[in-house]
Amino acid sequence: MTIKRALAVLIPAAVLLPMTMTATSAAADILLSQGKITATSSQESSSYAGKYAVDGSTSTRWASAEGSDPQWIRVDLGQSATVHRVKLNWEVAYAKKYRIELSADGTTWTTVDQNDTGDGGIDDRTGLNGRGRYVRVVGTARGTSYGYSLWELQVYGVTDTTGDTQPPSTPTGLKADTVAASSVALSWTASTDNVAVDGYDILRGGTVIGSSATPSYTDTTVAPETAYSYTVRARDGAGNLSGVSSALAVTTPAGGGGGGFVLAAAGDIAEQCTASSSSCIHPKTAALVQGMNPAAVITMGDNQYDDAHYSDYTSYYDKTWGKFKSITHPSVGNHDTYDSPAFAGYDKYWGTLGKPDGKRYYSWNMGNWHFISLDSNDFVTESLNAAADPPQVAWLKNDLANNTKGCIAAYYHHPRYSSGDHGDNEGAAALWDVLVNAKVDLVLNGHDHHYERFIPQGIDGKANAAGPVQILGGMGGAKLYPLHAAHSTTAKLLSTFGVLKLSMTDTTFTSQLIGLDNKVLDSSPTYTCH
């Protein structure tokens, strides 16, 4: 039920006894959610992250992206619990319709309560009786034209004390492997547990900033010339937490030439679906981009499915990733050739953003970085436009020769090497070989619908410290493809959705894969430009 305000009501004394018994039994309930790890479908900005809905303060809040349904916030209670009550303190942007769900694993959800007549204020949903580790509030209809916003999300109930109650050992050996102006790479000695260690929480200044399944983590939310204090703690599957490690003090250096910047990148993005479908992924990856607040966005082709008509671009891609159109530097994919005439939808939607010099390959600069967007359709046999375009190769060589920046990244659709369903592209060697010989630092691709990060490779695909780091980021929203045996140079191979977060300085770069739950699924080392 929903309790809006206290009412003085005269009721028969005979009714008081069961009410008193209920209050007595509920007295054992405790607040389970405060300070716990959250995930959200989106956030308006980093100032309105999910953690602010469980910080115990009514002056901070979570706010979703505006103007789309559904949106959700999830809290990890840390261990299985029986939930009896969920109290929601709405800001002006409230939910007219929402449901409360529980899950044991964060994947399979059961609805324990639903409200189709929400009117804002405080919703105190009592009388619940569900069990799970994860609690999710899903807004399905907004009460205003804004998004959804909660001052506080409070979950009450009883934790499971009948199972494993032994916490993992406290992590030791916390150290900083690399410290850059915009990132700090941490590692530590793994904890032990009587059952198994489930993961680690990373704390900065005493506040949880992320989690990791392995004893390492890269913080890319730091600023130059700033002092930070880090600790970590371990947790097991029952939610038992270890003590926090000894603190590690870190001071980031100054960023050269104006400091670093963050980019968001992905390929193979918008299928023909909208946020009204819970299985539609591109609205969720767009929310990840928004949370990164990037300086620019890179797309590695196949931005719109299936035949990339202009009407499809405006109906689907533009509703989500289109929010970042003004800062996007796109590249073209094979699906753009399926329109009639080929590229008609791509050219009309992107205009001069996609063809700044009248061609679908171009370059641009940011900081001490030179970026090159290429059209790999000209080189692969599967493309309807394959022509092994010598003019593009000549242009590329000339562009590289005239570059004055210290770091170089290139991106295009078809990868030279891939452990996915399409596999290696021999036709893309025409581009790859030129880039390797020019000592390009980073190459981004799509086409195969998975995530794969390689160690630096040479022309032959073998490990070579002088070669570029290749990252295949075809996980922007289109249906995932099967994986095959990993290459010997594959550092990480995942079948998952997400967005690539690139943290660039004037002399280095690091990458992270951010999953749909905002967790870091992969972190690269910090690479120094050639």
TrEMBL record:
SUPFAM superfamilies: Fibronectin type III, Galactose-binding domain-like, Metallo-dependent phosphatases. GO terms for biological process: polysaccharide catabolic process. Residues 1-27 form the signal peptide. Residues 167-255 form the Fibronectin type-III domain. Residues 20-158 form the F5/8 type C domain. One of its GO terms (molecular function) is hydrolase activity, acting on glycosyl bonds. Keywords: Carbohydrate metabolism, Glycosidase, Hydrolase, Polysaccharide degradation, Signal. PANTHER family: ACID PHOSPHATASE TYPE 7, PURPLE ACID PHOSPHATASE. This is 3',5'-cyclic AMP phosphodiesterase CpdA. It comes from Amycolatopsis xylanica.
